[in-house]
């Protein structure tokens, strides 16, 4: 099946004072299939949210290509842009910021149905159905956001996103502010919805345990670039990039294995306004060699099958050996 999201060589630049250009996203490529969850992980400032904002056309890219539902979104204007926006929705960390405090829950969810052109006479029923789908009693429709718990508010955000019937939802730290038990409930809800409808998620989080649970594939970002991408088992089971190894060494992640030397993350990430030469991770990488300071490593297939951008990561095993020639 065709990918619902295709990002190719995406670049997002911000201009700072004195003509400084910040390459917030610097040549990122990935795909998301229907029914798939792609996790985007990395420290804050790595460019994760900026990727999502570019996908939603909140931020204009400086280069590259974004296709959503098979459609190049770069040139969309007016009505076409509005139609596109229904394909992709965003759920944010704090629903307080995205829910109107003066608007009742029912009206908030109904708004999504209006965007989608659902006739007035059907909307009350559809609002009840949507609340039910996210596990909320329909009685909450007459309440205001401040009368709900954090988990309930996040369910409302999800109901509103579902209301426009999107193909993909970007969840930007969507469960990060919730208690552990509530977080698990919301993650399970997202999984159930995905199984029912084939929704794709772009799941952005700095929390690797959440990522391990939620994502089918995981992309690790560092200073605006992907440094590793593969399945959860590849990236967490046998990480190949020293940065991924360092992230995993810093927190216990169920099922994650430590490979290679113990890498500890020292210091803060460098400023994206003044990225290091060569491999951007080299000032913090205990394995760095001369080539790391001079030459930028590209993503390449490494041992285990994932892609990683590191000069020293072990290469992929050669293919199966040919059958030995049999003597006549
Ligand atoms: Fe470390 Fe060099 Fe690999 Fe960069 S390329 S992660 S500096 S070993
Ligand atoms: Mg962010």
Automatic annotation (TrEMBL):
ABC transporter domain: residues covered: 5-248
Pfam families: ABC_tran, oligo_HPY
SUPFAM superfamilies listed in its UniProt record: P-loop containing nucleoside triphosphate hydrolases
Keywords assigned by UniProt, alphabetized: ATP-binding, Nucleotide-binding, Transport
UniProt GO BP: peptide transport; transmembrane transport
Keyword match Cell membrane: no
InterPro entries noted in UniProt: AAA+_ATPase, ABC_transp_ATP-bind, ABC_transporter-like_ATP-bd, ABC_transporter-like_CS, Oligopep_ABC_C, P-loop_NTPase
Family statement: Belongs to the ABC transporter superfamily.
Protein name: Oligopeptide/dipeptide ABC transporter ATP-binding protein
Lineage of the organism: Bacteria, Bacillati, Actinomycetota, Actinomycetes, Streptosporangiales
């Amino acid at each position: 099946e065709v990918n619902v999201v295709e990002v190719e060589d995406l670049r997002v630049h911000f201009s700072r004072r004195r003509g400084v250009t910040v390459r917030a996203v610097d040549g990122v490529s990935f795909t998301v299939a229907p029914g798939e969850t792609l996790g985007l992980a990395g420290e804050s400032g790595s460019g994760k949210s900026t990727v999502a904002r570019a996908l939603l056309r909140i931020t204009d890219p400086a280069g590259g290509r974004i296709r959503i539902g098979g459609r190049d979104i770069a040139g969309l204007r007016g009505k076409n842009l509005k139609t596109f926006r229904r394909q992709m929705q965003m759920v944010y960390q704090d629903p307080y910021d995205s829910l109107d405090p003066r608007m009742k829950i029912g009206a908030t969810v109904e708004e999504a149905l209006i965007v989608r052109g659902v006739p007035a006479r059907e909307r009350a029923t559809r609002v009840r159905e949507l609340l039910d789908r996210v596990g909320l009693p329909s009685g909450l429709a007459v309440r205001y956001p401040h009368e709900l718990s954090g988990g309930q508010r996040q369910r409302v955000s999800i109901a509103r996103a579902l209301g426009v019937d999107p193909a993909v939802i970007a969840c930007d730290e969507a469960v990060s502010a919730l208690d552990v038990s509530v977080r698990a409930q919301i993650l399970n809800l997202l999984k159930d919805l995905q199984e029912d409808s084939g929704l794709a998620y772009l799941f952005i989080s700095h929390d690797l345990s959440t990522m391990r649970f939620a994502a089918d594939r995981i992309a690790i970002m560092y200073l605006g670039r992907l440094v590793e991408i593969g399945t959860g088992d590849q990236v967490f089971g046998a990480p190949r990039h020293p940065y991924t190894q360092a992230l995993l060494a810093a927190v216990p992640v169920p099922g994650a294995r430590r490979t290679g030397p113990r890498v500890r993350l020292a210091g803060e990430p460098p400023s994206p306004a003044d990225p290091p030469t060569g491999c951007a991770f080299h000032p913090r990488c205990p394995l760095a060699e001369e080539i790391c300071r001079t030459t930028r490593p590209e993503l390449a297939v490494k041992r285990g099958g994932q892609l990683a951008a590191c000069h020293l990561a072990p290469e992929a095993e050669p293919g199966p050996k040919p059958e030995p020639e049999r003597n006549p």
